Amino acid sequence: MDWDAFFTLHDGLPREGPGDGESLDWALALAGVPEDGVICDACCGPGADIAGLLAHVPQGRVEAPDLHGPFAIRAAARFADDPRVTVRQGDMGDLSGAYDLIWPAGALYFLGVAEGLARWRGALSPGGAVAFSEACWCTSAPSAAARAAWAEEYPQMTDEAGVTAQVSAAGYRILGQRRLSDAAWEAYCTPMEARIAALRPGADAALASVLDEAETEIATWRACRTEFGHLLTVARPA
Length: 238
Known about the structure:
Residues 39-128 form the Methyltransferase domain. By secondary structure, this protein is of the alpha/beta class.
C-alpha cells in the first residue's frame, strides 16, 4: 500500500468507514450515556461523528484523538469554536479516560476486538461502555469473490458469533448488536466514488492502483452485501 496515495484518496472524504446518524443514535441510547457525559471518539478521522456524539451529551464533552495528523487538524478546524470538543493527534490504543463511552466506529480492528476492549477497560468510568462496528461474515459459506475481498486486508474476519466470543473474552457483556444498514454503507461509498472520479484524470501509477482497489471494494460490497457487513456492538465491562 502506498500510504501517500491512500491519504490522497481519503483527503476530504466525510467518513472513513460505513456509518450514519441513525446507527450512532441507537448505540448511544443503548449505552445510556448521561447528558453531561464524556465521550472518546477514538480514531475520529475527519470528525464525521463528533456532532452526532455531542447531541447526546449537551452538557458534556467529546475528546477525539486520531493518529493521522491531517485528520486531526481537519476535525479540530470543524469544531474550533466549540469548547466541548478537544481534538488531538494521538493513538487510540493509549487512552486514559475516564470516559462514559468510547466510540471507535469501525476502527477497533486496528487493535483487535479482544485486545482493544481489554486495553480500554481502565479508560472507562464506572458504568461506561464501548460501542464499535466490526466487519464480519453474514453467512457460513461466503462466495469466492467475498473471501478474496477480505483475504489480504482482514484474513481473521469472523462472524457474529466470533465477534461475540471476542467481546466475552475481554470480560465485557453485550448490551445489544445490530448490522449497519445499506444506507450506512452508502454514506461511505457514495462520496468515495465521487472522489475517485475526481482523482482519476492524471493519476500516477501509485494513485491509480489505490483508486482501483477502492472501486473494487465498493463493487464487491454492492455485489456481496448479503454475505458480509459491519456488526455494531455495544458492550460494558462485566
